[in-house]
Amino acid sequence: MKPTLFILAAGIGSRYGGLKQLDGVGPNGETIMDYSIYDAIRGGFGKLVFVIRKSFEDDFRRIIVSKYEKHIQVEVVFQELDCLPEGFSLPAGREKPWGTNHAVLMGKDVIREPFAVINADDFYGRESFAAVGRFLENLDGTGNQYCMVGFRVGNTLSESGAVARGVCETNVDGFLTGVVERTGVERIDGKIQFKDEANRTVVLDENTPVSMNIWGFTPDYFKYSEDFFIDFLRQNAGNLKSEYFIPLMVNELITRGKASVKVLDTTSQWFGVTYSTDRPGVVEKLQALAEAGEYPPTLFNN
Predict the structure, then answer these.
(1) What is the DSSP string of the chain?
(2) Which of 95, 148, 160, 222 is the most exposed place for a label (fewest CB within 10 A)?
(3) Domain range for 244
């Protein structure tokens, strides 16, 4: 059974001011998402599931879904603030989305096969999708065995300023033992560094694996996520800024010994538009990939 690609796209409308403003950064106006979907299809994925906000469903289907549905099966699910477990109601004043793992939960009724999760607006590279696709295809119906692509931190930095990265710890067998979100990660005087909780400078090796939110799961992950979301809400519902992130759930499962997460190493260079000044560099990188023959002149011909 071919794996599914689950794309976290609920923030597209708000961040870009409408779908028509999805940024065309490729040589022929391609979006970063176009490249991810093209790479996923050639990496063996058989279905796309987008999680979006209901308010821009019509535009999304017309502008986005129509581009891909002749090439691969496409489904759309919705993330809303009031999508909460029975017995919980939306806290007064809550405006912030509940986070990436809440978004993942929205796929539980349409995904029955192993699946990968990605951000809609990050470039991950062909090798990343091939690696996740191979891992998921080889699971043979087993559960509790997950994966993530561990990008080398030196391949993920912005030249325009500091970034936040999920710094990963692994054991000798290459399995994840924990992810810690670090802010202010940047290269200073040739060294990649950040400040820890005690304001001490910590230097990271160039090849330290970091999470860029490309994960591989099996459907049992949904049940774990539903159960833990209830615990999360009991503890955090009153905090209007709290978010239910994927690494939070993954760390919980690892700590409890419920699942293993294989870290798939990649030499791919991640890039995205963290700062507006990053855009010219993204355009340049995609142009170079096209000129090198990594991608055809047009990704999706309708």
Answers:
(1) ---EEEEE-TTHHHHHTSGGG----STTS--HHHHHHHHHHHTT--EEEEEE-GGGHHHHIIIIIHHHTTTSEEEEEE--TT---TT--PPTT--S---HHHHHHTTTTT--S-EEEEETT-B--HHHHHHHHHHHHTTTT--SEEEEEEEEGGGS-BTTB-EEEEEEEE-TTSBEEEEEEEEEEEEETTEEEEE-TTS-EEEEPTT-EEEEEEEEE-THHHHHHHHHHHHHHHHHTT-TT----HHHHHHHHHHTTS-EEEEEEE-PPPB--SSGGGHHHHHHHHHHHHHTTSS-S-S---
(2) 95
(3) 4-141+212-291
